[in-house]
Amino acid sequence: NYSAANAFMDALALDSRRKGEPRTLAINWGPISETGFGTTPEGRALFSIWERRGIQGITPAQVTETIEFLIPQDINHAAVMRTDWELLKRSYSELLSAPWASGLVSANSGQSAAEPDLLAALKQVSVNDRKPIVVEFLQQQVCRIMGFRSGDEPEPHRGLFELGMDSLLALELKNRVQLGLKRDFPATAVFDYPSIDSLADYLLREVLLLEEPVKTGASAANGNGLGILEQIDSLSEEQVQELLNQRMGKAEVHE
């Protein structure tokens, strides 16, 4: 509804210029703080998320100053935002690399180094070295969406929701991780694996398929290097039954 109404106002302002009618100025504002929706609990929570993405609040005094600046300009349409471009690029790197936005970003902050290819990096290291890389990546993403400073990365075993993460931030984390890994996974994953450590295990095992499969009793090797399934082919029926009884006996003890 907001988008449709604002698009109509923008078109009306431009149409008045085309028809030679009295000038109309349409301004697309970023989030305005200290008044209206920006003072409500919902507004403050939403503005906090935007600030962590690089979109800062505009004060009423800045609104007045901006209007005084724009009225004398020979324009009918303007967009006004307070922006931390470095944060914005990290939050919307894919979006801001599009042709329509890349010039705007480079004009305001210069080109930043390309994001490293995480999946390629994981494939180049041994199995034991993969999890620390994923853990570090997740720590960086959590810091970005929750506004933690560099050096304040949460401990891998700490519960993310204990740190203040909510459902909106969990969805944002999921989207950022998907973008970094170039792999889709369910939105419920952050709730099912609510720590960096458990989420890293899940991503390696279920999403990236880079973790070695867990050896089960049926495939574990015996002392001479053969797995149980390989042994069965060389056993008699009585020996297979005896082996099965041994396995069942161990299972009953564990139960």
Q: Count the strands?
A: 4
How do the SSEs run, as a string of H and E?
A: HEHEHEEHHHHHHHHH
Strand content: under 5%
Estimate the mean pLDDT confidence. 80
Please list the strands of the largest sheet in the order they lie side by side. Answer: 1-3
- Note the quaternary state here: single chain
> Helix coverage percent of residues?
40-55%
The outline comes out as: elongated
Q: Count helical runs.
A: 12
The poorly predicted ranges are 213-227, 250-255
Rg from C-alpha positions? 28 Å
Largest sheet: 2 strands, parallel
Spatial gap, N to C terminus? 59 Å
Structural class given helices, strands, pairing?
mainly alpha
Structural commentary:
With 255 residues, the chain is mainly alpha-helical. It contains 12 helices and 4 strands; from the N terminus they run H-E-H-E-H-E-E-H-H-H-H-H-H-H-H-H. Helix 7 packs across helix 8 (167-181) and helix 7 (127-146) packs across helix 10. It is elongated. It starts with a helix and ends with a helix. 12% of the residues are buried. Residues 213-227 and 250-255 have low confidence and may be disordered.
